[in-house]
Amino acid sequence: MKFVSTRGDTPATAIDDALIAGLAPDGGLYVPERIPAFANIPAVTTLADTAAQVLAPYFVESRLRDVLPALCARAYDFDAPLVAMRGAGDSLLELFHGPTAAFKDYAARFLAEALGGLRADDAPITTILVATSGDTGAAVAGAFHRRPGFEVVILYPDGRVSPRQAHGLECWGDNVRTFRVAGSFDDCQRMAKAALSDRDLRERMALTSANSISLGRLLPQVAYYAHTALRFHAQHGEAPDFEGLNLIVPTGNLGNAAAAFVAKRMGLPIGDIVLASNANDVLPRYFTGGDYAPEATKATLANAMDVGAPSNFERLRYWHEDDTALRASLSAHAVDDATIRATISTAAERHGIVPCPHTACGLHVLETLRAHGDTRPWTVVATAHPAKFDSIVEPLVGHAIEVPPALAVCLSRPAYGETLAADDALLRGRLLRL
Ligand SMILES: *Cc1c(COP(=O)(O)O)cnc(C)c1O
């Protein structure tokens, strides 16, 4: 199994090289040359074991092939429970039980294990550069913190993340540098892309990314969808109207939803996949027939989804014959801030849960489907723990949200962030002076 670029201008590449590179040299995104499909639906086992099975076909030519099960056991060491919600068979897929309380922990931990396993002892230090709209940076920092041979540089938009998210980004120190950028997430992403495509810089330092453009982020996310779909199938697969696990995925850069799509293509029992966007509605406009028209980012309450140009769109387009096929395969809804607030306020009563603002977008999409007469069971993906967004959620629900233990550990550490202007050349200079 080799990997090619969505832009078609990169030779077929081995997985180990694609993982290390992050972005393909032609500026495109790495994709497997074909998506492997299971001949039979695998048996239900643990999350770590399903991860190893699902990832194995991609790693047949990897130096990590034989250690993949052990690596998955370390990376996927916290569960992804499927919790029943109030109402017609709906459930919540809680992906927030990791060290930084968002789903990004899974992929970040897998990537850290994989890059750590591929690294030669005498190799120069690898610098992982991450632009983050909130949760990726913390997950990557946590996964690589104090890992020998690695340095992490985080760029996040100053003032556009929740206070607890900011602390989660700044609480590491040691081999982690966190920059508060005076700009938007799009500025951070542009700066990271500029550095990563700077040949001269890359000759002087071993630089790679860990953004959702990175193959090492996409593939590990397939695992929790596979595991959930298998469990759901084991419980409901005998029902005559069984269509698979229907998913509503809160979406920003489309990495999480792209992983759900890959899981479905691999033949796992997944039904419909619906994207929930916030007021950054480039995907809802596209999926209802408009042009794909990236825009400047709008700041919303669901800040980790504040993306005006979803990077994984390029992968989804690559995997479909044309726009008609892509529009038939997914759909998308936009949810504005007033609706996010209203959804959080009423979620305990309507669904029996307290959501973070991102998860609230997904819940509202569920409510919209129900209002249009859809009676199928749906699973809403809970992308972060509500305690990470206490400043938004607590006033709306009227009580304190208990902080999960791992997040409490982050919050009790000192902060080490530095400021940086939104300037490509300044970042270049800082990287050379690390
Ligand atoms: C990153 C993130 C999202 C968006 O995920 P994408 O893979 O970028 O679409 C949604 N919710 C939370 C809490 C996130 O951290």
If you had to describe this structure to a student in words, what would you say it looks like?
With 434 residues, this protein is an alpha/beta fold. The protein has a domain at 73-102 and 216-404: Rossmann fold, CATH 3.40.50. It is 42% helix and 15% strand. It is built from 18 helices and 13 strands. The protein has helices at 15-21, 47-55, 68-75, 104-118, 135-144, 163-170, 185-196, 199-204, 215-236, 255-265, 282-287, 313-318, 323-329, 337-351, 357-371, 390-397, 405-411, 424-432; strands at 3-5, 30-32, 82-84, 91-94, 126-131, 150-157, 176-182, 206-209, 245-250, 270-277, 331-334, 379-382, 418-421. The radius of gyration is 20 Å and the shape is globular. Bound molecules: pyridoxal-5'-phosphate. The site of pyridoxal-5'-phosphate has 18 residues, from helix 10.
Q: Determine the mean pLDDT.
A: 95
Which fold name is given in CATH as the topology of the domain at 73-102 and 216-404?
Answer: Rossmann fold
Q: Helix- and strand-based class?
A: alpha/beta
Determine the strand fraction and express it as a percent band: 5-15%
The amount of helix comes to 40-55%
Please compute the radius of gyration using only Cα atoms: 20 Å
| Unique ligands | pyridoxal-5'-phosphate
The 3D shape can be described as globular
Number of strands: 13
Sketch the major β-sheet: 6 strands, mixed
